[in-house]
Amino acid sequence: MTVTSSRSAAPPRHRSHRGGGGHRGHRTAGRDRRRRRRRGLRVTLVVCLTLLVTAAAGAGWIYLKLNGNINTFDSGGISGDRPAAGVSQGENVLVIGSDARTGGNAALGGGDKDDIGRSDTTFLLHIYADHRHALAVSIPRDTLVTIPPCRLPDGSWTKTQTDTMFNAAYSVGQTAKGNPACTQNTVEKLTGLRVDHTVVVDFKGFARLTEVVGGVKVCLPQDVYENDLNPHLTTPGKLLFRKGVQTVSGQRALDYVRIRHGIGDGSDIGRIKRQQAFVADLLKKVKSNGLTPARLLPLAEAATKSMTVDPGLGSAGKLISFAMSLKDIDLHDTKFVTLPWRYEGSRVAIVQPDADALWAALRADRTIDGKNAGGKKKGPTAGASPTHVSGAGIDVTVYNGTTVTGLAARAAATLTSDGFTVTGTATAAAQDHTTTLVEYGPGLETQARTVAEVFPGARLERVTGTAVNVVLGQAYANTPAAAASPTPTAVPSEIANGARSADENPCSNLTYG
User: How far is CA 410 from each of CA 332, 401, 426, 429, 507, rounded to the nearest angstrom?
Assistant: First the structure.
């Protein structure tokens, strides 16, 4: 027997019996599995990051697209002589419906594409500081107002125009696109309120918005034919609308809100009522559809394509942020009213002191029923005279002897808060008074001196008559008490009683002129 054969006959040594080799094999397999899991996690993370980047790029693309749609007007045309900012914590948005024929609007509204741009519909929307209430004040196009200096296309400025139709402000400069800055200047002059933003919507934008929301409900008292929209036609023409409630969009919606001669007395005032009902139902439709991204994108596209805004809303981010800040405003607490008016011949005159009381209520962030909607004044307490004066039993009439809009209403509210009975407010015969004047009749000097205590530096003057009158001067307009708008208890009842809520039935509260 050889050694070699004996070695070869020896039983083989199995590593598995020695304890080390088999465990190393399991560790190797485990490392492979962990590597595969890490690779899987890395792939998942890469996919997720890719999706996030893609989504962000998509959102960026959307914003860029919307930004490319937005037109802004030159803020250089806005007056430097403006109401003070920050008096109210609410916001004022001027909304102008333009009948400009540029940019394809002539196809919808008719007329020459090079015609002068005009404002067809205008309202001032006050968003209260609590962002739960809003009030839209319609300004009739035929209202006689003062149009302050406005900039012309060549850079020069016009002179002040008095007793001029309100919608003429938009046409200053005689351009096809119109002059929204001049309309803003005029509204600030008229109301004494600072306009925070201005939005112009043209025919195309209006028509497209109604299509995006799926139509708007309207209510008609009678069948309406083509010659109701165009009174120059000699025959009735095609039937446009049937009597009763119906849903309209696009061109039909535009035709409805522009009808003036075919319903009621054919006045702009009657049309305003119908337009308020239309806008109310449009808001209702937007709310009911929901403010989801899928719903908002088509709305944003339609809006930005046919809107011109002030530079403060001149980007998609600013515009969307502003729109989203309105989402908590309740429909019932969104009200529509018309500037207090009366006919003056074929034109419309403003009724005072009701109009000034309305502007004072908005300045004080008071709702239409007098509730405080969160507006807090900066500076002196609103409505307080420098020293407490007891005006019990004293009647006084207040006249504005300056060009400062709303001054008489503010002084009247201050007097009322001190117990005086204000029998009325009006514009003085002359508006160049520097010092406040307290006029009094025989036997009323003591009462006049009490009234003068509310207006430091006021001069007393005895006149014929049986009343005490205050003629406000520029000295009072420059005081903190005048700058801090007095807080009224409510707007005049005639305005409140005629208000429309955005949640009302489309057939309710319509006079049709």
Answer: 29, 13, 12, 19, 37
Q: Tell me the chain's radius of gyration from C-alpha atoms.
A: 34
In the structure, what pLDDT confidence band is assigned to residue 290 with cuts at 50, 70 and 90? Answer: confident
Name the pTM for this structure.
0.69
Residue type, 287: K
Tally of CB atoms within 10 A around 499: 18
Please report how many Cα atoms fall inside a 13 Å half-sphere around the Cα of residue 229, on the Cβ side.
19
If phi > 0 it is left, if psi is from -120 to 50 it is alpha, else beta; for residue 276 that is alpha
Q: How confident is the model at residue 33 (pLDDT cuts 50, 70, 90)?
A: low
Provide the sign of the torsion angle of the four alpha carbons 14, 16, 17, 23, taken in this order: positive
Q: What is the b/e burial string over 188-208, where b = at least 16 CB atoms within 10 angstroms of the residue's CB?
A: bbbbbbbbbbbbbbbbbbbbb
Alpha helices per DSSP H over 306-458: 316-324, 354-363, 407-417, 445-452
Measured CA to CA, the distance from residue 113 to residue 393 in angstroms comes to 63
